[in-house]
Amino acid sequence: MLPIDIHAAQNIALPQEVRQDAELLMVYAELKNLDPQGERFATVLRGTIDQLLNGEVTGRYDWKTLYKTERTHAGTLVEINLQREFKFADGLTMDYRIAGVEVDCKYSQKFGGWMIPPEARGHICMLVWADDYKSQWSAGLFRVREDWLNRGSNRDAKLTIKAEHRKKIMWLWEGKLAENILLHMNRSDRMAVYAFNSGQQRLNELFRRVQKRRIGRNAVRTVAQQKDYMKRVRGNGGSRSALRPEGILIMGDYESHRTVAEQLGLPIPREGEFVSARVARRQPHHQGARQVLLDGQAWVLATSADLPERAPSLPSHTR
After folding, report:
1. Three-class SS of residue 264?
2. What H or E segment, with its residue span, contains residue 48?
3. How far apart are the first and last CA of the chain?
4. d(CA 167, CA 58)
5. pTM
6. Cβ partners under 8 Å of residue 229, min gap 6
């Protein structure tokens, strides 16, 4: 659960001095206009964490395996990647100019851990937080005031926000961070995946072990650790070919594949995602199960009572 004081409904109870801050309201309106639901923002955060992990080269999937210098660099990368995505103008004294207002960007891996530099006093900070273990994130706006900050003891005089003054943060968004499937999958399944030396075999095992869940492109890249990692998913020698005899379908983000997933009641793959599942030809004991017509026959999600049989072909790749 997210800390109670970051729920969006809390904005209704913001102190009057915050609700009447004209610049704060201008920045808030501009950001909500650029990204009403925070989807673009969440994508940047997911991508930045994956960029730091650099799984294709390092094989890493866990934030704890980052070097201290890499973790320290996270805030700078978040700042850069947000500016690239939203095309914020450079600030004169702060990081950005949004709606003509100077705004500083502060990222923390821990809620409430934002470090506010002395030069930000009196300015607006965009406070960003993301936790890969909880798969949660949030972002809000805060007008920095001296009496709302804890006294710092660190060398660079950076301060944190007093807990009782977090209610003065005007929250933009809070939500679920796209799941880091390698971090959250069953430990024994993960060990089985990494038991193979071959990237292709590891990928096959990933789709075999993690079914009916979205698997992102970064997980594929991290497990395969090969430049042509997307080729390792497809047919003609990839995981789709290898797992088809076991009855396993691997649906991607093509529109035709998304339709198959929807008809079977599976999570629908978003851009760059895959969903695998074992299927079986529809039999009398499948009464009530959702079905999809493939190769001229009705198929359903296989149950433990269904023996493996060769999966049908997926529809042609049309987006």
Report:
1. helix
2. helix 39-53
3. 36
4. 40
5. 0.87
6. 56, 199, 203, 220, 221
